[in-house]
Amino acid sequence: MMKRLLGLFCLMILGCNTASQVDTSSDPDPGSDTEETESQSNGTVSTDSTTEQIEGWTLIWSDEFEGSGLPDSSKWGYEEGFVRNGEAQFYVAERLENARLEGGHLVITARKDGYEGHEISSASLTTAGKASWTYARIEVRAKVPPGRGTWPAIWMLGTNIGQVGWPTCGEIDLMEYVGYDPDHLHFNIHTEAYNHMLGTNKGVTVEVMDAASDFHVYAIEWTKERIDFLLDSDLVFSFANEHTGNSTWPYDAPLYLLLNLAIGGSWGGLQGIDDALFPAEYFVDYVRVYEKTP
Question: Any catalytic annotation for residue 116?
């Protein structure tokens, strides 16, 4: 997630979604060096939450979030503490009040509960050290929480972040949302050459009126030549490999996935935090990772 407001790129009208000016910001995040799964991928998005296979694709990793209790510890770990961007929440690991399975969903909850002396608690789930991918199609169906001060995201970081740091490791933001701007979703990449610190990050902002009231499917199709960003099957942004080196394309190496609900911070908190938003609940229906069927 690592973000800050920046004016940028593309105007695209796709169905009922209108692309506008990009906003983003990022800070380094400690990561894992473990490489687990490598795949190549391309194709079309599925919005059917009951369908696990897509023609031409092979499902290689997924979590449907069935059952109850804590998320599957073989697939997910946690960030802990105050991690980045001056955010207000304290990330807590393995606490049902902040991350639980319920009704076929993962529910990440931010609470103003004073847990262990910290005003706001939340959760950030990560596959670091458990699964990572290269050239994959990654698809997440989710509903974001409303409220001024919320900052949920679906994003990826390079597993080599511990060695090379951010943004050299590369970042892919499948989706970001800031609650004070409720009618827009943000899709971005960050690299050594293209990032908010230089004012060069690349991405798009799309108008979506019901992001906090309905589920949407967020996906990337990531190949050696490009990363395509899809929202409910519509292509909203593409980032092409310029073949000018790692500074512009660090995406020939594995990245891991993060699902988190931040509160406040350098972007989410630009217009303050509304106490009425608590508890804020971020619903994730599934995460699916595919490779192209040979």
Answer: no
